[in-house]
């Protein structure tokens, strides 16, 4: 079963540029670790402190294996460390979604 991990970030709106750099770093790291990155999305209109990421996986087991590879990846570890050091992510939550498909 295909699943999409939706990560909802609450970010410091005064550090939007720092979060954008963090997101751009993931654009090359996530695919290298096996995730099907659908995209990172920054706030544009309305709420100014919520960003999203969507990453596809063949299964939850594939997601778990990916998480291990991501944490062991040198650029991934550096990106996590930058986020902790600069504190532009105030909170994050993950939801796992499955696609709705037409019935035959």
Describe this structure in words.
The radius of gyration is 14 Å and the shape is globular. The model has no long low-confidence stretch (mean pLDDT 96). It starts with a strand and ends in a 7-residue tail after the last strand. A four-stranded antiparallel β-sheet has the order 2-3-1-4. It has helices spanning 16-32, 60-72, 74-86; strands spanning 3-11, 36-41, 50-57, 89-97. It has one domain (3-93): Alpha-Beta Plaits (2-Layer Sandwich). The protein contains three helices and four strands; from the N terminus they run E-H-E-E-H-H-E. With 104 residues, the protein is of the alpha+beta class. Helix 1 (16-32) runs antiparallel to helix 3.
- The third-level CATH topology is Alpha-Beta Plaits
- Sequence of strands across the biggest β-sheet: 2-3-1-4
Q: What is the strand tally?
A: 4
Residues in helices, as a percent range: 40-55%
Give unreliable regions as ranges: none
The biggest sheet, with number of strands, parallel, antiparallel or mixed sense and barrel status, is:
4 strands, antiparallel
| CATH C-level category | Alpha Beta
Radius of gyration: 14 Å
Count of the domains = 1
Question: Which percent range describes the beta-strand content?
Answer: 25-35%
Order of H and E elements: EHEEHHE
The outline comes out as globular
- Give the end-to-end Cα distance, rounded to a whole number of Å: 17 Å
CATH architecture: 2-Layer Sandwich
Number of helices: 3
Average pLDDT, all residues: 96
Estimated structural class: alpha+beta
Oligomer: single chain
């Amino acid at each position: 079963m295909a699943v999409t991990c939706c990560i909802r970030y609450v970010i410091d709106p005064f550090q939007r540029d720092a979060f954008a750099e963090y997101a751009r770093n993931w654009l090359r790291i996530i695919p290298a670790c096996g995730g099907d990155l659908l995209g990172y999305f920054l706030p544009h209109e309305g709420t100014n402190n919520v960003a999203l990421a969507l990453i596809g996986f063949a299964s939850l087991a594939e997601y778990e294996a990916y998480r291990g590879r991501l944490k062991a990846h040198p650029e991934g570890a550096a990106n996590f460390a930058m986020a902790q050091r600069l504190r532009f992510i105030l909170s994050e939550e993950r939801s796992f979604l499955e696609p709705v498909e037409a019935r035959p």
